[in-house]
Design brief:
Keywords: Endonuclease, Hydrolase, Membrane, Nuclease, Transmembrane, Transmembrane helix. By secondary structure, this protein is an alpha/beta fold. The protein is built from seven helices and five strands, in the order H-H-H-H-E-E-E-H-E-H-E-H.
């Protein structure tokens, strides 16, 4: 379905380009069909502008006015997309998600202050344990990253905090996540 939508978008973009060429250059030469072409060109231009405005709004304001309760209700993949958006708003650049399964413990890779940082994202209802810290640490080695972090909407167990300190993995728990969310548009 997504491939079809992408192809449809590019066809609409091509129609938009043709409509602009018609409006700026060919309109004066097609006197007999001018009324019909004017209507088609206008509709193509309006459709392209409206769709792109919607896409821009969705991309930049998708998580606007978001509360932690909304984050708690997200599915895993949606939480990862939220984390990408949140990290971007907090100064990370060149953000990319790794493949869903077999990601070697890192869900997102980003750059900040010339350091490559890997993130393990965990949307949990209970406490996050050692496994997430171990996955982030092994993912750091696998992807040859400068730092590893585990980001959650929950809290970490004492054992996870102790292990993270030993391994040098940074933990971002619910209170720190809330502070990061202050940079979201409101």
């Amino acid at each position: 379905m997504q491939a079809f939508m992408k192809q449809l978008y590019w066809w609409l973009t091509a129609l938009f380009a043709l409509a602009l060429v018609y409006a700026f250059f060919a309109r004066g030469y097609l006197h007999t069909w001018q009324q019909q072409f004017d209507l088609v060109a206008f509709a193509a231009i309006v459709a392209w502008v409206v769709i792109n405005a919607g896409l821009i709004y969705r991309r930049h304001f998708r998580f606007r006015d978001l509360q932690l309760e909304n984050v708690d209700a997200m599915a895993g993949e949606e939480f990862e997309q939220f984390c990408v958006y949140l990290l971007k708003r907090n100064g990370f650049k060149h953000l990319q998600t790794t493949k869903g399964s077999g990601d070697q413990g890192i869900d997102i890779i980003g750059v900040k202050k010339q350091k490559q940082v890997g993130f393990q994202c965990k949307r949990y209802t209970g406490q996050v344990g050692n496994k997430a810290v171990q996955e982030a640490w092994s993912g750091q080695a696998f992807y040859k990253l400068d730092e590893a972090m585990v980001l959650t909407n929950s809290e970490f167990t004492d054992a996870a905090k102790e292990l993270a300190e030993q391994l040098g993995v940074t933990l971002i728990d619910r209170p720190r996540l809330k502070r990061l969310m202050r940079r979201l548009p409101s």
